[in-house]
Give the backbone structure.
Amino acid sequence: MNGMLQSARLNQLEQCLREELVDRINRAAPTDGRFDPFDGIYLARSSVSGNPASAVMGPSLCVIAQGGKEMFFGEQRCQYDPYTYLLTTVELPVSTRVMQAS
């Protein structure tokens, strides 16, 4: 029983922290688009799913607060969402698409 209670508390804490992250991003990026709150850091917000877009992606840590995104590196497909992240250490040609906007 103690393990179940601890698990429920951790889930509640995770949800609370995620909501805090979403709230802070909403304040920094109030509308769709790209925002640069600090040098070297940018936030991208999209409220609609879209068609794939090609780009060259530099070294990045990509974190999704809500929704989901897919990225193609050549033929390799990578999906990420609030429970996964993407880390790249070199420039890569990619194709990206917002799969689930929120």
User: Anything to note?
Assistant: The two ends are 35 Å apart (CA to CA). The chain has a mean pLDDT of 90.
